[in-house]
Amino acid sequence: MAGNAWRSAVSRVVGAFKNATPQSRTFTRGMQTVTLIPGDGIGPEISVAVMKIFEAAKAPIQWEERNVTAIKGPGGKWMIPPDAKESMDKNKIGLKGPLKTPIAAGHPSMNLLLRKTFDLYANVRPCVSIEGYKTPYTDVNLVTIRENTEGEYSGIEHVIVDGVVQSIKLITEQASQRIAEYAFEYARNNQRASVTAVHKANIMRMSDGLFLRKCREAAEKHRDVKFTEMYLDTVCLNMVQDPTQFDVLVMPNLYGDILSDLCAGLIGGLGVTPSGNIGANGVAIFESVHGTAPDIAGKDMANPTALLLSAVMMLRHMGLHGHAKKIEAACFDTIRDEKVRTKDLGGNSKCSEFTDAICQRVRDMN
Amino acid sequence: MDIAPIRWEERNVTAIKGPGGRWMIPPDAKESMDRSKIGLKGPLKTPIAAGHPSMNLLLRKTFDLYANVRPCISIEGYKTPYTDVNLVTIRENTEGEYSGIEHVIVDGVVQSIKLITENASRRIAEYAFEYARNNQRSSVTAVHKANIMRMSDGLFLRKCREVAENYKDVKFTEMYLDTVCLNMVQDPTQFDVLVMPNLYGDILSDLCAGLIGGLGVTPSGNIGANGVAIFESVHGTAPDIAGMDLANPTALLLSAVMMLRHMGLHDYGNKIQTACFDTIRDKKVLTKDLGGNSKCSEFTADICRRVQDLD
């Protein structure tokens, strides 16, 4: 028994070394601790589903659960609980379920707070068509990379005179350079052939012009990745006619907000779309982007696919491609098989049944 | 034989420099539009580095074309992933993110200013509800991001709500732009008339054109002050096929149908639209971009024949 445990521990470490990419520098020493934020509503139950599946897959992940609520720190500034921050700073990698949006709670949204706390500058959504979950499109396989700190969402607005309001869009060289470089690195690390900068520099010559310039500069340093540029309206026009022409798309904040949701719609909506937020200092938080679904919370009806696929994204980010592939295949196979599916996917199975079906497939693949 | 009661007055539009050095459209074109009020326009080439603004911008400024209207209806026989699209995008076309006001704040930091005014927002909202009423549309949805841009989109939304109060016969809803896009590609049938500020309109109108097959089949109308309205195809000039009898006139034809409806000539509008859709559905005489190999003149002759048969 000890011999088997020792061998499997060694092979896990050796496997991790083999899968190691230059980015996974700290992830090659066996079990890796990840901060888990289950969230509200269906958050806890889909988190349990993910943990079960990871265990079945023998993924070398240890979960450190933390809650995230807005609290007032010294000096009256809103912040996340210190133990949550400390956990994320230590582990660097996090997985997060949906958080409820407080209405008139007097504090900013939790997502905004997390974004500011960890400087989550890139929102990344891979959109891949799921066989067995029918949409008007069958071959979507693209990634939207959205600059998430500035642009149209700077929040700077003024009343100029009565009846005239201005809203300021800020584009900086640094943020544009950072997101562009991330997009090309992502393309390289994930064997994507091209990066397309999405913009409206014909209209917003200075701001989008600056963004575009930084993308072109980053492209020069990544000649192995093809670089193209396209107007946002042209992207939308073409996206709904033939999404297969797109690969990695990088863009400023508002355009990313729109396009990432548009692309999620192409593959079936927020219930099946993974998402990752990349921050400074190596922090990365992966999350499902659907809501808390309070009407079905606690009833074993939720669909854990979005959180699971986000966790798969997380594994890939950590260089654990073998485990990622296995879990993703088990998930897609279960959906394609159409026998055990949650209600939103067109079936009438429970969340636990769907989860167990995936666990079984994962174990069969071990 | 019943002929559409339209007389055409042809004018060219190029940018010329007027007294005082300001760019303008030729005086005879302006005079013609001011007199007739209604215009139909084909594609204009965009001059690169010609030193003058785009022709479309010039036309927009000259006639204060504040509303861009695009009805998007699925065309039976022209296959896209969607079959039942039937919506209208109404885009505010004078302000918003396209004010063109930008500054370098410090080295490496640029700001771009989005302007929203009470007047422009009220005017486009009123147009949207009037349009809905005149065209028997049941609802108007304001598309916005007022959760993020509280003051600017908030002002736009407020004016829409105020106007909605005067049109209780039309249902009014509000939806975030990202939610609209997410839902649009999953089920476009849930949408009817959509009204929104400039940039969102730029995006959504092209997205919706894509749903029905692209700019080659999408009609468009621009509503201006003083009763002026210019209807136009929004595709390009296609220089590679120009003069070869290969072009598809559908977009311009459907824009002309929009024009007839705007003028109250609904019977003629319906007749011509039906003939056009029937020709496409029949699939016997289609231009290359529609999947066939007929000439423009053959496609046109087929529609003419059907129109005459409908008399």
From TrEMBL, chain A:
<keyword id="KW-0560">Oxidoreductase</keyword>
<keyword id="KW-0496">Mitochondrion</keyword>
<dbReference type="GO" id="GO:0006102">
    <property type="term" value="P:isocitrate metabolic process"/>
</dbReference>
<keyword id="KW-0809">Transit peptide</keyword>
<dbReference type="GO" id="GO:0005739">
    <property type="term" value="C:mitochondrion"/>
</dbReference>
<keyword id="KW-0816">Tricarboxylic acid cycle</keyword>
<feature type="domain" description="Isopropylmalate dehydrogenase-like">
    <location>
        <begin position="33"/>
        <end position="358"/>
    </location>
</feature>
<dbReference type="GO" id="GO:0004449">
    <property type="term" value="F:isocitrate dehydrogenase (NAD+) activity"/>
</dbReference>
<keyword id="KW-0460">Magnesium</keyword>
<dbReference type="InterPro" id="IPR024084">
    <property type="entry name" value="IsoPropMal-DH-like_dom"/>
</dbReference>
<keyword id="KW-0479">Metal-binding</keyword>
<keyword id="KW-0520">NAD</keyword>
<dbReference type="InterPro" id="IPR019818">
    <property type="entry name" value="IsoCit/isopropylmalate_DH_CS"/>
</dbReference>
<dbReference type="GO" id="GO:0006099">
    <property type="term" value="P:tricarboxylic acid cycle"/>
</dbReference>
<dbReference type="GO" id="GO:0051287">
    <property type="term" value="F:NAD binding"/>
</dbReference>
<dbReference type="Pfam" id="PF00180">
    <property type="entry name" value="Iso_dh"/>
</dbReference>
<dbReference type="GO" id="GO:0000287">
    <property type="term" value="F:magnesium ion binding"/>
</dbReference>
<comment type="subunit">
    <text>Heterooligomer of subunits alpha (IDH3A), beta (IDH3B), and gamma (IDH3G) in the apparent ratio of 2:1:1. The heterodimer containing one IDH3A and one IDH3B subunit and the heterodimer containing one IDH3A and one IDH3G subunit assemble into a heterotetramer (which contains two subunits of IDH3A, one of IDH3B and one of IDH3G) and further into the heterooctamer.</text>
</comment>
<dbReference type="InterPro" id="IPR004434">
    <property type="entry name" value="Isocitrate_DH_NAD"/>
</dbReference>
<protein>
    <recommendedName>
        <fullName>Isocitrate dehydrogenase [NAD] subunit, mitochondrial</fullName>
    </recommendedName>
</protein>
<comment type="similarity">
    <text>Belongs to the isocitrate and isopropylmalate dehydrogenases family.</text>
</comment>
<comment type="function">
    <text>Catalytic subunit of the enzyme which catalyzes the decarboxylation of isocitrate (ICT) into alpha-ketoglutarate. The heterodimer composed of the alpha (IDH3A) and beta (IDH3B) subunits and the heterodimer composed of the alpha (IDH3A) and gamma (IDH3G) subunits, have considerable basal activity but the full activity of the heterotetramer (containing two subunits of IDH3A, one of IDH3B and one of IDH3G) requires the assembly and cooperative function of both heterodimers.</text>
</comment>
From TrEMBL, chain B:
<feature type="domain" description="Isopropylmalate dehydrogenase-like">
    <location>
        <begin position="3"/>
        <end position="303"/>
    </location>
</feature>
<keyword id="KW-0816">Tricarboxylic acid cycle</keyword>
<dbReference type="InterPro" id="IPR019818">
    <property type="entry name" value="IsoCit/isopropylmalate_DH_CS"/>
</dbReference>
<dbReference type="Pfam" id="PF00180">
    <property type="entry name" value="Iso_dh"/>
</dbReference>
<keyword id="KW-0520">NAD</keyword>
<dbReference type="GO" id="GO:0051287">
    <property type="term" value="F:NAD binding"/>
</dbReference>
<keyword id="KW-0560">Oxidoreductase</keyword>
<dbReference type="GO" id="GO:0004449">
    <property type="term" value="F:isocitrate dehydrogenase (NAD+) activity"/>
</dbReference>
<comment type="similarity">
    <text>Belongs to the isocitrate and isopropylmalate dehydrogenases family.</text>
</comment>
<comment type="subunit">
    <text>Heterooligomer of subunits alpha (IDH3A), beta (IDH3B), and gamma (IDH3G) in the apparent ratio of 2:1:1. The heterodimer containing one IDH3A and one IDH3B subunit and the heterodimer containing one IDH3A and one IDH3G subunit assemble into a heterotetramer (which contains two subunits of IDH3A, one of IDH3B and one of IDH3G) and further into the heterooctamer.</text>
</comment>
<comment type="function">
    <text>Catalytic subunit of the enzyme which catalyzes the decarboxylation of isocitrate (ICT) into alpha-ketoglutarate. The heterodimer composed of the alpha (IDH3A) and beta (IDH3B) subunits and the heterodimer composed of the alpha (IDH3A) and gamma (IDH3G) subunits, have considerable basal activity but the full activity of the heterotetramer (containing two subunits of IDH3A, one of IDH3B and one of IDH3G) requires the assembly and cooperative function of both heterodimers.</text>
</comment>
<dbReference type="GO" id="GO:0000287">
    <property type="term" value="F:magnesium ion binding"/>
</dbReference>
<protein>
    <recommendedName>
        <fullName>Isocitrate dehydrogenase [NAD] subunit, mitochondrial</fullName>
    </recommendedName>
</protein>
<keyword id="KW-0479">Metal-binding</keyword>
<keyword id="KW-0809">Transit peptide</keyword>
<dbReference type="InterPro" id="IPR024084">
    <property type="entry name" value="IsoPropMal-DH-like_dom"/>
</dbReference>
<keyword id="KW-0496">Mitochondrion</keyword>
<dbReference type="GO" id="GO:0006099">
    <property type="term" value="P:tricarboxylic acid cycle"/>
</dbReference>
<dbReference type="InterPro" id="IPR004434">
    <property type="entry name" value="Isocitrate_DH_NAD"/>
</dbReference>
<dbReference type="GO" id="GO:0005739">
    <property type="term" value="C:mitochondrion"/>
</dbReference>
<keyword id="KW-0460">Magnesium</keyword>
<dbReference type="GO" id="GO:0006102">
    <property type="term" value="P:isocitrate metabolic process"/>
</dbReference>
